[in-house]
Design the sequence.
């Protein structure tokens, strides 16, 4: 009866998918209804999202580990079929016999004809012929054929793409048109995100009118149709598109070996050569120079030049000379930036639907194309800001690195900061690449020092004097004796006095030093996570989080969850490290326990902006823990009133222990409030969408 | 009975449709493009002989893939005996797959070891799990995978999920035993 009632009471309850269904969901093998159900469940359930991430990780590991079993390219069907299965059975369809087999056949032939001794002679002759052949080949002028060069370039590109489960190839190009006078030279920047798995692309252009998206094939194909919405393609790209179409090149991948090869194959009569060249930065390169010798019509490419860097077989430049009536126009494509990224690490604005599948888009795809009002700019700016925060978060830039993200004007967000190395700067820039309305000003420490030293050389001299005056005190730690006693006991040497050999004493000192290092380092990490949480809480204080779009909310939630997980891990590490040492030392253990009991009772009633408040409380507690740890284990000067109790270290030890136990409860409170806040909002968001 | 020309065209269309998946599948077994092409030609030929004059049917996918698998294993056996091959892979003496433009010797060594680990982890899965993963990675739908393995389509999702989880577990364990950093395990947080 009860079972029956339960069934009647919740007729529309959604069943949580198991792993098998989740993988089928990822592979797109579920029917539309179930797919949509799982998407709704994913929006509502953090636990399910975590399970999905685990399944994705399994897939990723398998794909990456067995990537060597995936063909870099698939030969065209016609190569296998060649007109039908009957001809496929004929001997000429078998792959060509390779070099060693030919040689072997030659040797066998001679051996059969002239006997064993002649066979030996034949081997020598064959080896000599081969050596001569290789010598001649090596000394020949053309080091590589155009076909081989393009093939290698394609293979290298496929190899780079194989590093990712769902790769997206990003290219930023400078396009220049240089016609003969009176037309003026024009140039434009063209960014392309190419998603080979889903066979789609997204493009963005930048010229004197600013940045704007060219929405993939749809908009590219709408060029020249005045009835459509305002074409966002600059004239130079529109022209180039027509040229590409006429010459069987791929406008979605303007600078690619496949596109160039396609044109090359379509030309009947041509003269071609491959020459070596040196790039401005000193690298060697190959240039394929192709000239069409036959008749040409309007928009035909009559001459092309394709440059490939030798060290990694990467295309850098393409020059096309196009027939335009009696004269010709040159289009030059130079690569400015290139990267292969995983689809899911892309900012949502690139492929707005890749996070949510077939659901309605939460971000307008034409944000910058039409006349945008202040509201849409503000929304876009908020999205840019959170995407930048998330990008920096993904590469760990929010954990103590001096990098900040600011709205510098009504239409621009800026990432500023100082990083340790150029490598780190590149990493951050790569993570930020592709986010619209964003500029990055990142300097390395060396650059920052060079700037300041050149501007204030005289100040340095004063500073030098000041620096010299700093005296490094080698004080003992407040609980040095207690720690030494503890480690002596632990190593089985109960005597307080060092033994004649002194080895044990040195050992104990070293253990104390190691222990202190570990404690301070863990406390630093804990504080870094707390700072990251605090920054998010302050940035999205009040009602600003409520105004975020669902996609931005998702990113914010992911960041908060990540930091909370890190915070809890570090907090429990600090606790498990220091508690065994400090509890025996604490004279006020009873009070600690009583505080522990009272502190764990965090308020559970839902408040307005509760997670932000709870986060700030957690930060204060973490700051205290950090202070106590530094005072006790690094001999730092105490700052708070509780720490200033100079009589003994006992109160400080008790305070640290109680703060640590309070932290655990508070972190749980924040977690609960985050869960409450975000599940409510995602429900609201999904309701809104449903309406 | 359909006429010869129609049958021929229908088979060509069928092969063309399945070609990419079949190529990927065969490549996963034989590991190089030349042998893959050879196996595919032979597969099409044999399939043609068997099916000539009949209408193509969805269940033919199972036949096609089974035929290709058997031929691919034959090719592999011809090139070297299976036992010595597996032994060499286990000992990390050979890499049979993978083409890199110009890797450094260290990269080659590391890649070789990782491929050996992946082979060993795959070897620890059941035959059905291995088959299922290979067919899925070739881009086949679960319906077709089910047909090729004579299973119900509903059982494919759980089978794939279990195989992937088990593979990851074995792979990480083997890598760690070899003292190699395991990205799979480190990918916990970000």
Sequence:
């Amino acid at each position: 009866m009860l079972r029956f009632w339960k069934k009647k009471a919740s007729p529309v309850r959604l069943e949580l998918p198991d792993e098998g269904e989740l993988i089928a969901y990822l592979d797109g093998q579920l029917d539309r209804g179930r797919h949509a159900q799982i998407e709704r469940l994913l929006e509502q359930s953090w636990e399910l999202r975590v399970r999905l991430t685990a399944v994705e990780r399994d897939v990723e590991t398998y794909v990456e580990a067995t990537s060597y079993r995936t063909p870099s390219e698939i030969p065209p069907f016609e190569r296998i079929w060649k007109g039908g299965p009957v001809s496929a059975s004929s001997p000429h369809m078998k792959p060509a016999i390779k070099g060693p087999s030919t040689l072997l056949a030659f040797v066998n032939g001679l051996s059969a004809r002239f006997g064993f001794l002649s066979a030996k002679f034949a081997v020598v002759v064959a080896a000599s012929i081969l050596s001569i052949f290789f010598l001649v080949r090596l000394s020949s002028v053309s080091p590589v054929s155009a076909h081989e060069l393009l093939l290698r370039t394609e293979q290298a590109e496929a190899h780079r793409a194989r590093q990712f489960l769902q790769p997206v190839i990003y290219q930023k190009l400078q396009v220049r048109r240089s016609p003969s006078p009176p037309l003026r030279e024009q140039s434009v920047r063209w960014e392309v995100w190419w998603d080979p798995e889903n066979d789609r692309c997204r493009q963005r252009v930048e010229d004197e009118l600013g940045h704007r998206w060219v929405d993939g094939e749809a908009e590219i194909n709408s060029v020249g149709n005045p009835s459509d919405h305002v074409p966002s393609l600059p004239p130079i790209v529109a022209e180039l598109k027509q040229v590409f179409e006429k010459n069987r090149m791929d406008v979605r991948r303007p600078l690619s070996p496949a596109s160039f090869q396609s044109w090359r194959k379509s030309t009947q009569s041509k003269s071609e050569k491959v020459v070596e060249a040196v790039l401005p930065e000193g690298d060697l390169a190959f240039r394929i120079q192709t000239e069409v010798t036959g008749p040409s019509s309007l928009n035909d490419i009559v001459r092309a030049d394709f440059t490939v860097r030798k060290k990694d077989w990467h295309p850098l430049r393409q020059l096309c000379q196009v027939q335009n009536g009696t004269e010709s126009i040159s289009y030059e494509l130079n690569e400015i930036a290139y990267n292969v990224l995983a689809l899911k690490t892309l900012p949502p604005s690139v492929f707005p639907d890749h996070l949510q599948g077939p659901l309605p888009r939460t971000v307008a795809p034409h944000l910058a194309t039409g006349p945008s009002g202040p509201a849409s700019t503000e929304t876009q700016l908020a999205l840019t800001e959170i995407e930048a925060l998330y990008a920096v978060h993904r590469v760990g830039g929010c954990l103590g690195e001096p990098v900040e993200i600011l709205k510098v004007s009504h239409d621009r967000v800026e990432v500023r900061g100082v990083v340790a190395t150029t490598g780190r700067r590149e990493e951050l820039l790569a993570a930020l690449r592709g986010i619209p309305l964003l500029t990055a000003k990142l300097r390395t420490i060396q650059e920052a020092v060079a700037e300041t030293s050149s501007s204030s050389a005289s100040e340095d001299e004063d500073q030098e004097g000041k620096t010299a005056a700093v005296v490094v005190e080698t004080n003992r730690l407040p609980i040095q004796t207690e720690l030494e006693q503890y480690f002596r006991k632990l190593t089985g040497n109960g005597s307080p006095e060092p033994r004649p050999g002194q080895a044990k004493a040195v050992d104990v000192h070293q253990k104390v030093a190691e222990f202190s290092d570990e404690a301070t380092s863990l406390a630093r990490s804990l504080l870094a996570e707390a700072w990251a949480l605090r920054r998010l809480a302050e940035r999205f204080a009040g009602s600003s989080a409520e105004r975020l779009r669902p996609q931005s909310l998702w990113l914010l939630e992911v960041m908060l969850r990540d930091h909370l997980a890190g915070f809890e891990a570090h907090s429990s590490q600090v606790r498990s490290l220091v508690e065994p040492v400090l509890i025996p030392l604490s004279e006020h253990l009873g009070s600690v326990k009583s505080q522990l009991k009272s502190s764990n009772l965090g308020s559970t009633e839902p408040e307005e902006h509760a997670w932000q408040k709870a986060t700030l409380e957690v930060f204060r507690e973490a700051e205290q823990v950090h202070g106590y740890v530094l005072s006790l284990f690094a001999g730092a000067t105490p700052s708070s009133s509780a720490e200033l109790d100079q009589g003994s270290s006992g109160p400080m030890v008790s305070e640290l222990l109680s703060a640590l136990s309070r932290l655990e409860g508070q972190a749980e409170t924040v977690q609960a409030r985050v869960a409450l806040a975000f599940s409510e909002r995602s429900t609201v968001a999904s309701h809104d969408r449903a309406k | 009975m359909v006429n010869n020309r129609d049958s021929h065209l229908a088979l060509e269309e069928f092969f063309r449709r399945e070609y990419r998946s079949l190529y990927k599948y065969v490549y996963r077994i034989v590991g190089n493009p030349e042998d893959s092409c050879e196996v595919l030609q032979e597969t099409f030929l044999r399939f043609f002989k068997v099916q000539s004059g009949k209408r193509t049917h969805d269940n033919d996918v199972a036949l096609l893939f089974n035929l290709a698998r058997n031929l691919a294993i034959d090719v592999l056996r011809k090139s070297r005996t299976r036992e010595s091959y597996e032994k060499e892979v286990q000992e990390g003496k050979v890499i049979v797959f993978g083409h890199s433009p110009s890797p450094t010797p260290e990269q080659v060594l590391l890649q070789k070891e990782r491929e050996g680990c992946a082979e060993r982890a795959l070897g620890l899965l059941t035959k059905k799990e291995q088959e299922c993963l290979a067919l899925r990675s070739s881009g086949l739908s679960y319906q077709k995978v089910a047909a090729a393995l004579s299973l119900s389509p509903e059982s494919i999702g759980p089978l794939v999920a279990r195989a992937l989880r088990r593979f990851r577990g074995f792979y990480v364990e083997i890598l760690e035993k070899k003292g190699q950093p395991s990205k799979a395990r480190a990918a916990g947080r970000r």
About this structure: DSSP finds 21 helices and twelve strands in chain A.
